[in-house]
Structures are given as C-alpha cells and as structure tokens.
Write a structure and sequence with these properties.
The chain is of the alpha/beta class. It contains five helices and 13 strands. It has a single domain, classed as Alpha-Beta Complex (Spore Coat Polysaccharide Biosynthesis Protein SpsA, Chain A). The radius of gyration is 17 Å and the shape is globular.
Amino acid sequence: MKAMILAAGEGRRMRPLTDVKPKPLLEVAGRPLIEHHISKLSAAGFREIVVNVSHLGQQLVDFLGDGSQWRVDIAISVEQTPLETAGGIIQALPRLGDTPFLLVNGDVFTDYPLAKLRETAPLERGAHLVLVPNPRHHPLGDFALQDDRVGQLLSIETGAGDPMVVTYSGIGVYDPALFADSAPGRQPLKPLLDEAIARASLSGELYEGTWEDVGTPQRLTALNQKFP
C-alpha cells in the first residue's frame, strides 16, 4: 500500500510562522512534523510515499529529497496553487495507482499505529477513517460513528447504543475510485465523503490515543511543552 502526506496548505492560521516556513516543517519535539510521519510510515512498512507541496514547497522538496534517509521512496506532487484536499489527491492519483492508499494530514501529531491500516480495505468508492474524540477547539465534531459506520451528524439511527459525535483525524484509507468522477482542480474532500455516506461506503474507527491538530501557534507551543 502506498501513502500520501498532505503538505500543500498555506497554514494561514499558523501565521506568522508559516510566512517563512511551510507548516509540515514546523517542529515538535525537535523534529519537523512531516519527519515524524515519514519515520512512522517507514517503521510501519510503507515504502512508497507521495507528498503534495505548494506554499513554500521548495523547502519541503529540499528537506525530503528522495526519501532514502528514511528508507522510503518519496514522489512529489507539485501544486502551482493549493488545490485543497480532494484536488490534491486527484492530481496525485497517477502516482498513487489504482489500489487503496493511506492518507495522512501533514499538520497532525499522533502515535496512531499506522501499520494497522496496511491491510485495511475500504468499501468500493469509499474510505475507512480514523476518528478521534472531539478536541476542545472543535467541540461539534465532523461525523457520527456507530459501530464501524460513519454517517452525517445526527443521521444514524439509534439502536444498541447512541452514535458518537467524532472528529476526523486526518488519517484514512481511501479507494481511488472515490475520486474517479471528479474533475481536476481545487476542491474539498468533505462533499465526496458525504457522497460515500449516502452510498453506505464510509467506515471508521475511534482512536483515543495521542492526537493533536497543530493548527495554531498556541497549539504548537502547548504541544512542544507536552513533548519537549
């Protein structure tokens, strides 16, 4: 299974830090965020990684090289302007192939065991999402989760237990066919996930270990205090 790290965002909420450095190169525990991901992917047995870049992208290209220092092969997908999540994936599809791939947001910090997802097969034209309890800065969540079914907020019928309101971690396994009908260009991921929900082809799991969305300078500072 190949993996893709999303690293093309402008990091507007992280300014002024991202005026001079792309967000995935900001450091936690003395190492860039993206290096944490690549090291964990390599340790989990992933050998081919695609990274999309745009804002200050040459810094990422120079830092990553060909990936050999982490015992992986890195391919770069350059976006002239950021294409958002789905748009970036669609542009990178020729590099990802026609089998399911792992997707990781470049601006999260987590100890999720990525090796667990290597054998995960998402439903046709769907995805399997890693979901987390709602963080303080995102109390309303993104989806409802009941057993392994992911649905719209408040849309899953109650049965043995009420559905949980959860947040997407930025980690998931995707069937490339989910993007097959989408034209190239800038577009977000959420509408495609909503379509997958309508087809009952979106599954998920809850992870309650370490996970942080490094979205603001304040959160970055707090994370470095927690993991010096």
